[in-house]
Amino acid sequence: MAELESLMGRSAPVLKLENVAVAYKVRGGEIEAVQDVSFQIRRGEAYGIVGESGCGKSTVAWAVLNFLGANGYVKRGSIKFLGQELVGKSGEELRRLRGDQIAMVYQDPMQALNPSMRLGDQMREVLTVHRGLSEDAAEKRCIEMLERVYMPDPANVMQRYPHQISGGQQQRVVIAMALLNNPALLIMDEPTTALDVTVEAAVLDLIAELRRDFDTGIMFISHNLGVIARVCTRVGVMYAGEMVERATVEEIFKDPQHPYTQGLIRCVPKLGSNKLGSVLYPIRGRVPPPDKRPTGCVFSPRCDYCRDRCQVERPTLRQLPNGSWVRCHFAEEIDPRLWQPSEDIMPPKPVSHDGANEPILKIEGLKKYYEVPGSSLKDVLGLGEKRLVKAVENASFSVPQGSTLGIVGESGCGKSTLVKTIVGLEDSTGGQANFLGFDITGDLTTRDEKLIQELQMVFQNPDSTMNPSYTIGQQIARPMQRFGTVPRDKIRSEVIRLLEAVRLGANYMDRLPRQLSGGEKQRVGIARALASRPDLIMCDEPVSALDVSVQAAVLNLLLEIQDTYGTTMLFIAHDLSVVRFFSDYVAVMYLGQIMEIGPAEAIYAPPYHPYTEALLSAVPIPDPTARQKRIRLEGSVPSALNPPSGCRFNTRCPRRQLLPDPDVCLTEPPWRDAGQGHRIFCHHTLDTLSSFDPVITTQSTKEAKHVG
Questions:
Q1: Nearest to residue 668, comparing CAs of 459, 393, 475?
Q2: What values do phi and psi take at 570, rounded to 5?
Q3: Residues 580 and 622 in one domain
Q4: 421 shares a domain with 482
Q5: Which one-letter DSSP state was computed for residue 337?
Q6: Is residue 262 part of a domain?
Q7: pLDDT of 379-389, one tens digit each?
């Protein structure tokens, strides 16, 4: 293989697809899932493939690896790897390539790791099978590669099982395993979707380093445009099984040519934007299934520039004078600056909340501890010392009626526990929580029914909260029947009204959850939360798993609900751009404690807590010209079972050594009041925190401007 690569030359593409079509045999015929896809990837290049769910991104990757299943096959076209034709190769020939010269990193690392084998055994197997190394040589090579991906204590990690390390560490193991044989091509399918923003930043840094140091060609599949902007050099945009645009990453974001690409970019909130100064426009409609694609241009039913020609004639992929390739009849005539939204996607005009309204929710010193039982004889007899997980510690804040408080932080920081304690799914350990003048520190069994009606929740995964055997109409009607919010003879009409409010309609009444897409299920979850007409809705990562277009539609829907009903919201998300856009106030949590809280615009500009600064430096920005300070947190979040003394962030704080006496961080820090409700829990003075440069700098056409 090395000799072949040398003969091909470094300038030859590692991977080249020409007019590839992938079909699946089904009852009564076949369906083409991918049609006429062409692109190439060179050594040391990261090629991004973006598009909504169902566009065929992953199918293209499966075609390269021949993982299409028993009923899938490459119907036509060519897939060449280092000049070798892969289409038609035997299973044994492809097996020798996979894991050796071609490697893949999956979205969920547990799909690639055997839960019953130690990590070291799984990694060594790659080298003993494909390279014929001895066990000792393979062990040494594996430890070196784990060090290369910044894995702490790699020799110890080799002895562990997958469940004994964190998700971010699992992903690093999978990346290290993929790189053991120095592959020429690395395929990465949404490798950072489930990771915290700080871990995601470390993994993306690692990918950039590996691309440079190993000269590996990378196919990077993602629906996150910010990740694509940070990692990739060129981009292919897919829609309904076709490649509709190919260009450099700079051209895609600066001057997108295809109406679909333009629509994707309009869906994404920019980090410095808010709901008063910017608007998200979802793409109307949805991606058609492979067996129901329209004739002519596949994007024509959703395109605002559609003409008669588009409905009857399929456009070809052609090159424009600027070098971009686009599949559109009228790309040269379209000026996205003149685009006007249609009535059905016009978002509401949000109202500013300056804190003038009375607080509807007041939290003071709220705590939530979990007792962890030990396994020793003393613990079994009840004589051992109690061990407590301090999930939430001394949380204090208030939320004005009709406003939104965003809560951000890494996994395990206590965001969801805080919300569950407020809603009553968990009882509090200490402190006070007051909602509408009522104490809500007890669990649901002690709570007044009226309070249950006024406090509702939208969960991250709607599948886990829906009964698969009940229709959508029945599930939305249930809270109305339970709380008597409308007369029984009006329930059906009220369910239809709520379905229309979430842009679904009466035809969804009799459908079952399995007949809905992810975005539609999330809208049903929102409609069900509204059915009891609550004053406070808690949203726990409601858009994290959604495509950018569906995400924009759901965010606009929540804004419309808030404007119409004056609903107060608590909004948890790991995407700081979404939180900045949607929230009036933001609380930053770390290891159970609130480290900073205040108006959203204040949180995203100096002065900010060193932890907030690190979060902002990690968030992917959908702008390849943006510049971010590189601040990476060392180590992982400490255990809430034994948190650090003093400031809980002191073990990872990059600003600690700037203090005259760094050991002061071992004592509890004071709250610094920056005015207008902006408070920072830190030993650094406000003057010092204000002196730090902004994390993000964006370059406009004439001058640089700073945004938080």
A1: 393
A2: -110, 130
A3: no
A4: yes
A5: G
A6: no
A7: 556 666 677 88
What residue numbers bound the domain in which 652 lies?
604-707
Which residues, in sequence order, are CB contacts of 321 under 8 Å at separation 6+? none
Q: How many helices (H) and strands (E) does the chain have?
A: 23, 27
Question: Could you tell me if residue 185 is inside a domain?
Answer: no
Dihedral sign from CA coordinates of 367, 368, 374, 380: positive
Identify the residue with better confidence: 147 or 236: 236
Q: Could you tell me which of 65, 57, 52 has the C-alpha nearest to residue 39?
A: 57
Rounded Cα–Cα distance for residues 678 and 691 (Å): 17
Matching residue, tokens 């395993």: 177
Q: Which two tokens stand for residue 618?
A: 């990690």
Residue 369 and residue 341 share a domain: no
pLDDT digits (tens, 9 = 90+) for 101-121: 898 888 778 878 999 999 999
pLDDT digits (tens, 9 = 90+) for 193-220: 767 788 788 888 888 887 888 888 999 9
Structurally, the chain folds into a number of domains equal to 3
* Tokens 């096959």, located at residue: 73
pTM of this structure: 0.86
DSSP letter, residue 422: H
Instruction: Judge if 568 and 680 occupy the same domain.
Output: no
What are the tens digits of pLDDT across the range 292-330? 899 999 999 999 999 999 999 999 999 999 899 999 999
Whether residue 302 is found in the same domain as residue 366: no
Tell me whether residue 126 is in a domain.
no
pLDDT at 152 exceeding the cut of 90: no
C-alpha torsion angle, residues 196, 199, 203, 205 (rounded to 10): 110
For 519-539, write each residue's pLDDT tens digit.
Answer: 788 889 988 988 888 999 999
The tokens describing 559, both together, are 């804004």
CATH of the domain at 400: 3.40.50.300
